[in-house]
Amino acid sequence: NTKLYKTGDLVRYLEDGNIEYIQRIDEQVKIRGYRIELAEIEQQLLAQVDIKEAVVIAKEINNSKALIAFITSNIPLIKTNTIKTSLAKSLPQYMIPLVIKQIKAIPLTPNAKVDKKALESIKITLSASTAYIAPRTKLEKDLASIFEQTLNVKNVGIKDNFFELGGHSLLVFELISKINNKLNKKLDVVAIFRAPSIEQIVEYLANNQQADIIVPICEGGTKRAIFAVPGIEGNPFVYKDLSSLLGKNQSFYGVQINEIKGKDRSIKMLAKISIENMKKIQEKGPYRLLGYSQGGLIAYEMARILLENDEEVDSLVILDTREPDILRLLMRGKSYLEFEFDSLKEYFKLNSLDLLINFKEYASKTSEERKKCILEYINTDKSKISSQDFEVSYENYKSNIQIIMNYKAKAMNKICKVTLFKAKVQDEQDDLTPYDYGWNKYMVKDIKVKQINGTHHSLIREENLDVLVEYYKNEKND
Fold it and tell me: What angle do CA 363, 368, 369 make, to 5 degrees?
């Protein structure tokens, strides 16, 4: 009953019995963790009415591998955005080519095979879908210059979309840092997702818009909305990959916990204010709630408060969150300052930086000295985090850590469908954590527990979300 799986690899046995990898024997590539069959994309391109030939390759764009499609057509200038829209009906988002380039003919080798090297040598210019409108004011020109530097493109117009020009979530942080530092502005991550063009950013700044507590990640879907609370960093757009994979038919909103201010910040306070703002979008239940890391505590408290007030909660999904007593146990007697230091190291790690200070040195300084020391490091390092952005993040981190430590959860008084998704890769402290992460003691009915690929920090990335996507797609929520 042994199963054999075709991997698509060409290998050979060595004399010592080991297997040596030679190359792929199919057209499969790996992009952002996904194995993609290029022939499948080519097949969908050839199904388009005006396309005669199509070849898809993987090419390095903005320091990451991207899909580039080369096509031929009888039409002199084919509308590539129309093709992308059509492809989205049959292919997932991660299989839509970043660029579809029309050429006169597909280059061939002397053996009449597609000349992939010739295609790779073709210069790819990222351009937006809209007609070019040049920057007019000084602010527009400054923003265009920053867009061009960040994306490594030329002639960015005021209506050009940052993401259509090759921008992605990591480059958003770099873009914001440059705008805030060079132009002395105070933009956050959410602003770029909501206003991705120069024209929209200018309007956003002019109106001095106050940040919303609940922000749309995908609006207008027919399926009942998911309201998602992010982790300790407070950025709701960590859910952008999940929302994209669930499709445009699934309404999806994120909670900006860092926009909830006040001296009396607590998990309960954040939950109550989140509920108030959620009701502005969906007045009545049943509600679908999701929380990742620290956000799992807030999402749980939201569900508990709603049930206590005789409101209906359809589902609560907790992404790798230990209940508060387990979190305190995992500290193993650590002080608040040690917990703050460990969390700070994680923040730096997430931004591809090392924290060049040990705990003993960190603890010997005053609060202001600690912040100054780290800000000096950021100012001298070639970092994508600006000192201004870090200062805001640092204060948010400290505040959010404190409310985690102070949270004492109460049990639910009604049955609620709760599912815990645990990271498949756990740290060395996992021996202290029970199978249910301690949540069953708060429930009227035991929770369901599932595993999700990745570590605590990587499980929310696109390549690890298949189990969670399947869960939501199988859930009855119309």
Answer: 55
Largest Cα span, the chain: 75
Contact predicate 187/208, CB 8 Å: no
Q: CA-CA distance, 55 to 69, in Å (whole number)?
A: 6
Which tens digits make up the pLDDT trace of 355-414?
Answer: 667 788 888 888 777 777 776 665 545 455 555 556 666 677 677 777 887 888 999 999
Contact between 199 and 134 (Cβ < 8 Å) = no
Per DSSP, the three-state class of 166 is coil
- The single residue listed with the structure tokens 């020109």 is 141
| Nearest of 396, 410, 400 to residue 301 by alpha carbon | 410
Q: How far apart are CA 368 and CA 287, in angstroms?
A: 42
Which tokens hold the place of 396? 């948010």
Look at residue 55 and give its three-state secondary structure. strand
Residues 6+ apart with CB under 8 A from 22: 9, 10, 11, 12
CA atoms lying within 13 Å on the CB side of residue 331: 19
pLDDT tens, 49-83? 889 999 999 888 766 678 899 999 988 888 887 88
44, burial (CB in 10 Å: exposed 0-12, middle 13-18, buried 19+): buried
Neighbours of 390 (CB within 10 A): 23
Nearest to 437 by CA among 251, 291, 305: 291
- Kindly report the length of the chain: 478
- The span from the CA of 249 to the CA of 191, in Å, is 23
